[in-house]
Amino acid sequence: QVQLVQSGNEVKKPGASVKVSCKASGYIFRRFGISWVRQAPGQGLEWIGWISGYSGKTHYAQTVQGRLTMATDTSTSTAYMELMNLRSDDTAVYYCAKDANPLIPEPQMFDFWGQGSLVTVSS
Amino acid sequence: EIVLTQSPGTLSLSPGERATLSCRASQSLSSNSLAWYQQRPGQAPRLLISAASRRATGIPDRFSGSGSGTDFTLTINRLEPEDFAVYYCQQSGTSPTFGQGTRLEIK
Lengths: 123, 107
Hints:
The complex is a heterodimer. Chain A has strands spanning about 5, 10, 20-25, 35-40, 45-50, 60, 70-75, 80-85, 90-100, 110-115, 115-120. By secondary structure, chain A is mainly β. In chain A, a hairpin with a 6-residue loop joins strand 4 and strand 5. The N and C termini of chain A lie far apart (about 40 Å). Chain B is built from no helices and ten strands. In chain B, strands 2, 4, 5, 6, 8, 9 and 10 form a seven-stranded mixed beta sheet that branches.
């Protein structure tokens, strides 16, 4: 069965960086893109970026452009996101989510989600 | 950026009733690009509907989606206790966006 297992919760100071991993299993990793979606406490869902499992091509949201880097390691079927220069309003649960359709060169709808990783930014 | 506006913000109904949730887009969408999710407290979102009307695997047939262009609807017939949650619509493409959510609560 498809599973996305994320790394644990993190506490960071403003200005620091955080890296979250998302290990996939149960499907052919290279055929599907992975998006990252975040949810601030008590708030809605915000898409922040996507990476192709096949080509490594990325799309980033304007709100995090220049601070967010995404990557994949196809040998371990793992996706990573690194957010730099953290601010207090980056405090959120970060989810990875798998594209529902294979080999499409842009973000799709998301049929499987990781369990979420809470990133807390506080001085 | 395509803005999705969901209504109502909160819907109060009883088990067994029908829920009708709306999602309006700021510009016309391809029906293939509209999805609905359910999120229960403390859980990740779950895909319910893709391509505006296609139920995801394992989703009960009391959930149905409809609509086209800028107006889309999620209907939940015969509400069960586990259906009371927050529902989001989402449009896909180069820059996906989500609606702000509709909270379905027990009356």
